């Protein structure tokens, strides 16, 4: 069974750099059982934080990659009426399902699984801003009270142990004020060069200092060039990994940066970097 004590603290891991401000808010949200909403540029480690909390505290993960089609309820449970109707007409065969038992046709989503678990879990709601405000509002009481109703049988599911809830947003859509009020909110700023050295060293401890310094110089110069999607931490780590795998002794410079596609992902950004203007098609 995973840790359940409210005194449990997260201090970062050998894979995740936790700056003091983020450490403070994480270790307030955990004992107070309050959802922690993380915002910030893509690639700053919002999603990874949930995984590293689970790994460090030896907890299981429940994860929802949010979509615009989510309505909230399916994150808790889904009642498979089609399967039950099919079984009532044609039989359930050797499936073990009993058409007279509605529980055989209820499938719990990530929130439901976290609530019915005997052990404490980390619940990640990733990119909540992709959902609409109605979905966010539908989740308010569920997350705050740690319970929801299975409407088909009017049965209340209450969390046996409240999970550690991490919510991420890339600010693609404004979140509702009531939703924000029920969360602790933290903006993860982009790492400074000094912090980035620490982050890279966690992943590549044997990287020569001169190599790392040259990579960071190129990286931060690229970030200053106002690309539509500037390279972030994840891209930097991938790029360094590619340079090492290729046996290169340096990152290059100017227009000769190797593996530029590991740093820049949008076609327009790559063309801009190469000094190429794509022809307009009429």
The largest sheet is:
5 strands, parallel
Helix content, binned percent: 25-40%
Find the structural class using helix and strand composition: alpha/beta
Radius of gyration: 23 Å
Q: Characterize the overall form.
A: elongated
Number of helices: 11
Low confidence ranges: 1-6
Query: Quick one: how many beta strands?
Result: 9
Distance between the amino and carboxyl termini: 62 Å
Question: Helix-strand pattern, N to C?
Answer: HEHEHEHEHEHEEEHEHHHH
Mean pLDDT: 90
Strand order of the largest sheet: 2-5-8-1-9
* Portion in beta strands: 5-15%
Q: Can you put this structure into words, describing what you see?
A:
It is a single chain. By secondary structure, the protein is α/β, with parallel strands linked by helices. The strands form 3 sheets. It has a 5-stranded parallel β-sheet with strand order 2-5-8-1-9, with helices on both faces. The protein has a two-stranded antiparallel ribbon with strand order 3-4. The protein has a two-stranded antiparallel ribbon with strand order 6-7. The chain has helices at 20-32, 46-57, 73-76, 81-90, 110-116, 133-145, 177-181, 193-203, 209-223, 233-245, 267-273; strands at residues 36-39, 60-65, 77-79, 106-108, 121-126, 147-150, 155-158, 164-169, 184-187. α8 (193-203) packs across α9.
